[in-house]
Design a protein that fits this description.
Layout (H helix, E strand, L loop, with lengths): L5 E7 L4 H14 L4 E8 L5 E7 L2 E8 L4 E8 L2 H22 L1
């Protein structure tokens, strides 16, 4: 068996830490990931980081409110769950885009 890590990172527009945390928790669960632990930190005067330890690796959110953007990153050793995450992420981004207009 060959060890593989599938990685996806990108910038998104949502910077609301509550909706980000809720939305991505749901996306991770829908994708089939095992959520082992979650940690978050609120920076002063602004900014937020949330990290999930997954049975299949990890996922992180980092907000940059001063730039009105958020960086997300998923690392996974499970290709099927990774692919499902990308499908759910696209639906999230379509919904996020619709809410802005």
């Amino acid at each position: 068996m060959e060890a593989r890590i599938y990685n996806h990172s990108e910038w998104i527009r949502d910077i609301n830490h509550e909706t980000l945390k809720e939305s991505f928790r749901e996306i991770l669960l829908k994708s089939g990931f095992g959520l082992l632990s979650q940690m978050e930190h609120h920076f002063e005067p602004q900014g937020y980081t949330c990290i999930w330890l997954l049975a299949e690796s990890h996922f992180a959110i980092h907000t940059f409110p001063e730039e009105s953007t958020t960086y997300i990153e998923l690392s996974s050793c499970n290709k099927e769950m990774y692919d499902q995450f990308l499908i759910h992420l696209e639906a999230y981004k379509e919904n996020e885009q619709a809410l802005r207009y």
